[in-house]
Amino acid sequence: MTKNLDSEGLRSIAENYDLFYIDLWGVVHNGIVLHEEAINTLKMLLKFNKKFVLLTNAPRPIVTVKSILEKMGMEENLSNHVFTSGEASLSYLSKEHNSQKFYHVGPPRDFDLFKGFENYKSNIINDSEYLLCTGLFDEHDKDLNFYKNLLENYVNKKMICTNPDLIVDKGNRRELCAGSVAMVFEKMGGEVVYFGKPYPEVYNQSIDNKNKKILSIGDNLNTDIKGANLLNYDSLLISNGVHKNEIKDNGIEKVSKQYESIANFMQSDLKW
What we know:
With 272 residues, the chain is α/β, with parallel strands linked by helices. It folds into two domains: 3-57 and 198-267, Rossmann fold; 87-194, 3-Layer(aba) Sandwich (Rossmann fold). The protein contains ten helices and 13 strands. The protein has helices at residues 36-47, 62-72, 76-79, 85-96, 144-151, 178-187, 200-206, 221-231, 244-250, 252-259, and strands at residues 3-4, 19-22, 51-56, 82-84, 102-105, 130-133, 158-161, 167-170, 173-176, 192-194, 214-218, 234-238, 265-267. A seven-stranded parallel beta sheet has the order 1-13-12-11-2-3-4, with helices on both faces. The chain has a four-stranded parallel beta sheet with strand order 5-6-7-10, covered by helices on one side. Strand 2, helix 1 (36-47) and strand 3 (51-56) form a beta-alpha-beta unit. Helix 5 (144-151) packs across helix 6 and helix 9 packs across helix 10. The chain is globular and about 55 Å long. The mean pLDDT is 96.
């Protein structure tokens, strides 16, 4: 049973935890503006000396995401807590695929991820040794059939997916993410290595989490809450995020069952 904390706030349970993993998109901001109550919550965690990581399935290095948040108005003492799925993928890529040609599936805004090895980017998919998926091409950002046709002859190549999210809401607009392309590739028989929630590496790389009582906060049952369930962390679902309409129509228990992920707590929006 998921307990609703809308009236009591996060403050009612905060003392029970040593470490908080907090999602960014859908919790701290909506892709356009920061949520004031969420920012206040982060400040209160700092005030009470609580450790937290702003853990995001962003296919970009930490420094890029920090810069975006600071342009939105986030103070540096908060943005310093960011860790990204893109950052988690970099150590793997340098060890396992060093000096190998890759074909990039994703928009130009994600080029920062491979700035250190951009010379190995191939514009011809046939010449590449692996596929690096960070998202969708700007000109094909709604049609997954395009990627089925593009990739169907290359299922022998390994795909590295740096954002397991299937969808995200940017303001009031829903957008597809890299995870949707990876899912198409897997359904055709391709192998995908994922970096980001719900997979353990991104949690373990971000901070020393040994012997800590942990609460994971996010709006996505498929990544934030599923990751917490897999790692035996407690979790708090933000219900006004990506599942807002599903929860409104069917209720939290039914939606949780559908996604096979159960949160201990829920809030409409993150509030202290």
